[in-house]
Design brief:
The complex is a heterodimer of chains A (about 350) and B (about 270). Chain A has 14 helices and no strands. By secondary structure, chain A is an all-alpha fold. Chain A has a single domain, classed as ABC transporter involved in vitamin B12 uptake, BtuC (Orthogonal Bundle), CATH 1.10.3470. Chain A is globular and about 75 Å long. The N and C termini of chain A lie far apart (about 45 Å). Chain B has about 270 residues and is of the alpha/beta class. Helices cover about 35% and strands about 30% of the residues of chain B. A six-stranded mixed sheet of chain B has the order 6-7-8-3-9-10, sandwiched between helices. In chain B, strands 2-1-4-5 form a four-stranded antiparallel sheet, with helices on one face. In chain B, helix 4 crosses helix 5 and helix 5 runs parallel beside helix 6. The chains are: A mainly alpha (about 350), B alpha/beta (about 270). Chains A and B meet through helix 9 and helix 10 of A and helix 2, strand 6, helix 3, helix 4 and helix 5 of B.
């Protein structure tokens, strides 16, 4: 008897020639424009810096490295180090971290069906902060501060998932509450570590918590960029499924998308990206919350476009903030301060102008 | 008659609390079947069991001849479409995109929809008269329009069986009747429909069959004329309803209203 039903003819009788109802050309154009913005921002960012190097010099240094030319004779080795070993990895790392935080933010917001969620919601930041503080205070026991931060950041999310999982289901509210609880637990632990640490360790912890790209190196780029980009591509390919998930668990099941499975995959990818970014550069606020919002306003809520657009916008934004951080004053300003200073007015503007339509 | 939905000896309990006891019924192809019963009688749980959102502890549920126990979520979605009660999603998806979501179980590529999917979605929009609002954000529509969009999404899903969870509960009278007419039209095209409702009049006017539930089991089942009777309604609602005949149409009225009006009394 299985499958012996006649095909339902409901939609066959309705002749529907497709017009431009589902056209995505406009959105693709916006994605392209954001890509151009990212390229322009990075091209400009390598030229700015406390040490003045002419535009021609900057690009000839980069080109000679890219093309493996041995023109060392007419290169100033100080300029070469500044452009190739300091500025360029820093620019790339800022873009990568912006990508990670903004794409993870969009994914968390979709999974939790809440536009106010940020990538740190499940306790990644507090967990990573605790790991970093442990690594700084008890440096003799830990391999590296970065590894400790990564492990504890991921651990916080795994614990939150474990606490929230009942009968193979993880209700969103329970998961977020578990994240909040773990976050405050780890924050308390960080406070204990601050309390017992000596002055230099305390200073180091405080600086780590503010986040920044001061020590960006090629080895950071080589570690972080592949992980972030691969996770980002996997995430992007699940954009349509994320649209379905954001309608709610039961509807997702009804539409053939297993909510438990895909939420786990997406949250896993977002956690991986966020953890590795946070463990390398510390806690940078606002990017993960703001960028998805800004993109939804530009090209609508379809996650197939929100994820890449948000990532590229996040990369540009964080790069601009970091360039300001290293050029505005003679000494560096922690970039987290700039992202917050620029981000808060933007959110206030959003609240005042279209609070209802954005937050309901 | 082919039974598209076949439920046999279904059991379900939350902990020690039994919610469904020995539920058995069938719905044939192209039938519009109403699921009727008071609050808390287990309707929603029965619904969720049939959709495999909940796992039944005993008995068997067959959809299109296949035991749903053996079906994966992806396979279920090709057989059964689920129309939830209208609600506001957190993101302002456009109406056409919400309807296109109905094609998800049939998407071939990982990333997007093909021409056929888009045409079917347009067809569903046209069938429900939603083409004019196709470009509006779904969460800015009225409740009635949102319910229509969700039905269009289920139509685009092209399943032999469709479940609607109280599709008319939040709507005004004209929208309620519109939804029932559309469900009737969909059923006539060969799709089997199971719809929850709290309105005894609606189920008796529009349904081919009615399953009446009370206290976790099926009280009566059959054509509405045999099932929506004063005896049955008295049993579930305790002396609230009177059934009258108004020019051939069956009306369920509150007892005190029925006493004061001139409609002919029939003893059903």
């Amino acid at each position: 008897m299985a499958g012996c039903l006649k095909d339902t003819s409901l939609l066959d009788d309705i002749a529907c020639e497709e017009g431009d109802e589902f056209s995505i050309h406009g959105k693709l154009l916006i994605l392209f424009a954001l890509f151009v913005l990212l390229v322009l921002t990075s091209s400009a960012a390598v030229v700015f810096g406390a040490y003045k190097i002419s535009i021609a010099d900057v690009y000839s240094i980069i080109l000679s490295h890219l093309l493996h030319l041995s023109e060392a004779q007419n290169m100033d080795s100080l300029k070469d180090i500044i452009v190739w070993d300091l500025r360029l990895p820093r620019v790339l790392l800022a873009i990568t971290v912006g990508f990670a935080l903004a794409a993870a933010g969009a994914t968390f917001q979709g999974c939790f069906r809440n536009p106010l969620v940020e990538p740190y919601i499940l306790g990644i930041s507090s967990g990573a902060a605790f790991g970093a503080a442990m690594g700084i205070v008890f440096h003799q026991f830990f391999f590296s501060v970065q590894a400790a931060a990564f492990i504890f950041g991921s651990l916080a999310v795994i614990l939150a998932y474990g606490i929230a999982c009942v009968n193979k289901e993880t209700p969103t509210i329970t998961l977020i509450l578990a994240g909040v609880i773990l976050g405050s637990l780890f924050s308390a632990a960080v406070s204990i570590l601050k309390y017992i640490s000596n002055d230099s360790a305390l200073r180091e912890i405080v600086f780590w918590l503010m986040g920044g790209f001061y020590f960006a190196s090629w080895s950071d780029v080589a570690l972080v960029t592949p992980v972030v980009m691969l996770s980002f591509l996997a995430m992007w390919s699940l954009g349509w499924k994320l649209n379905i998930l954001s309608m709610g668990d039961d509807e997702a099941r009804g539409l053939g998308v297993n909510p438990e499975k895909y939420k786990l995959i997406l949250i896993g990818l977002a956690t991986l990206m966020t953890s590795i970014a946070v463990s390398t550069v510390g806690i940078i606020a606002w990017v993960g919350l703001m960028m998805p919002h800004a993109t939804r306003m530009i090209l609508g809520p379809d996650h197939r476009f929100v994820i890449p657009a948000s990532a590229m916008l996040g990369g540009s934004y964080l790069l601009i903030c970091d360039t300001m951080a290293r050029t505005l004053t003679s000494s560096e300003i922690p970039v987290g301060i700039i992202t917050s200073l620029l981000g808060a007015p933007y959110l206030i503007y959003l609240l005042r102008t279209r609070g209802k339509s954005v937050f309901e | 008659m082919i039974h598209v939905l076949n439920v046999k000896d279904l059991q379900f309990q939350y902990g020690m609390q039994p919610v469904l006891k020995d539920i058995s019924f069938q719905v044939g192809q192209g039938q519009l079947c109403g699921l009727f019963g008071p609050n808390g009688c287990g309707k929603t749980t029965l619904f969720k069991c049939c959709l495999k959102f909940l796992k039944n502890q005993g008995g068997q549920i067959k959809v299109d001849g296949q035991d749903i126990k053996n079906l994966r979520i992806e396979e279920m979605a090709k057989l059964v479409a689920y129309v939830p009660q209208e609600h506001k999603p957190p993101f302002p998806y456009l109406v056409k995109d919400v309807v296109l979501m109905g094609r998800t179980p049939r998407l071939k590529s990982l990333f997007g929809t093909n021409k056929e999917d888009r045409q079917k979605a347009l067809g569903a929009l046209k069938l429900l008269g939603l083409l004019e609002i196709a470009d509006k954000p779904y969460n800015q529509l009225s409740g009635g329009q949102r319910q229509m969009v969700l039905i269009a999404r289920a139509v685009a899903q092209e399943t032999p069986l469709m479940f609607l969870d109280e599709p008319t509960s939040a709507l005004d009278f004209s929208n309620q009747i519109r939804i029932w007419r559309i469900m009737k039209q969909i059923a006539e095209s060969g799709v089997t429909i199971l719809a929850c409702s709290h309105d005894p009049n609606h189920v008796s006017w529009y349904c081919d069959r009615v399953v009446v539930m009370n206290h976790n089991h099926i009280l009566r089942e059959g054509p509405p004329q045999e099932v929506i009777t004063e005896t049955v309604l008295d049993e579930i609602y305790r002396n609230v309803c009177a059934v009258r005949n108004l020019d051939g149409a069956r009306m369920v009225l509150p007892k005190e209203v029925a006493r004061g009006n001139g409609a002919r009394k029939h003893n059903y």
